[in-house]
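TICKET: design request
STATUS: open
ATTACHED STRUCTURE:
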């Protein structure tokens, strides 16, 4: 995927987040609900883009369509509430510890179908103009966090999850574009003990990730660190160890079936 295409993908994510924030803020202030054409006018976006984004956001539960317009959906409120609950609250300190020890950006993510949803990110990952913020949605197959969330999948489960996915045009220059290729990467990652993804989603970005498990050993989230290749690669082994220790500490706070 070209730099322009990667930038377009990032732009789409940023617009989706902007749309959710705008709708939630209007609802919080008791303003009237808006439909697609009104949202497009308010946000100065193409109506076709707003129509597509609202459909995707409704599918994720981050928005819902009412009779008079769009409002924040149950997924939005569930995500907001989860940020103050138990192990996810503890994750904030773990993310900042990873930043302090490694000098890289850090994230905690969960999976919703074949999408990854960002729950928390480190303070150095939330810079002005960045599209990285809680609620950000990325593909499960071409991100380090995504593959960590697929860690326990066998081939049949992976085939079932990605059966209807169109890989074309999504991801960075290192992205896999078939289930076969993704399976091969999973096998490689398991051998290494952590996920290593170079330019699979964002151009010029390397991401390392590990799964976070609950008390029964089920994968419930992914911890990851990100940075440029020249910053991440020399410390990959150190970063992987730090991620695993952090994931183990978080596991102590994760209730079963959280």
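STATUS: resolved
RESOLUTION: sequence designed for all positions
ATTACHED SEQUENCE:
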């Amino acid at each position: 995927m070209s730099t322009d295409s990667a930038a377009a993908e990032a732009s789409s994510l940023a617009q989706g987040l902007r749309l959710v924030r705008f709708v939630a803020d209007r609802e919080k202030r008791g303003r009237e609900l808006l439909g697609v054409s009104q949202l497009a006018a308010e946000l100065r976006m193409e109506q076709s883009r707003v129509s597509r984004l609202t459909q995707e956001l409704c599918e994720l539960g981050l928005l819902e369509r009412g009779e008079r317009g769009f409002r924040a959906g149950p997924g939005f409120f569930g995500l907001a509430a989860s940020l103050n609950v138990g192990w996810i609250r503890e994750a904030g300190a773990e993310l900042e510890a990873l930043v302090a020890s490694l000098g890289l950006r850090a994230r905690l993510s969960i999976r919703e179908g074949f999408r990854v949803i960002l729950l928390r990110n480190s303070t150095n990952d939330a810079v002005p103009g960045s599209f990285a913020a809680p609620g950000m949605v990325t593909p499960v197959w071409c991100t380090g966090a995504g593959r960590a969330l697929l860690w326990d999948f066998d081939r049949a489960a992976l085939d079932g999850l990605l059966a209807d996915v169109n890989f074309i045009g999504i991801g960075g220059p290192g992205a896999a574009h078939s289930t076969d290729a993704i399976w091969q990467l999973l096998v490689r990652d398991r051998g290494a003990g952590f996920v290593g993804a170079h330019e699979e989603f964002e151009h010029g970005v390397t991401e390392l990730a590990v799964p976070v498990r609950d008390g029964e050993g089920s994968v419930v989230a992914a911890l990851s660190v990100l940075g440029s290749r020249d910053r991440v690669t020399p410390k990959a082994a150190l970063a992987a160890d730090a991620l695993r220790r952090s994931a183990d500490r978080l596991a102590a706070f994760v209730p079963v079936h959280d």
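CLOSING REMARK: The beta strands are 63-65, 70-72, 105-112, 115-121, 137-139, 195-198, 205-213, 219-228. Residues 83-251 form a domain with the Beta-Lactamase fold (CATH 3.30.450.40).
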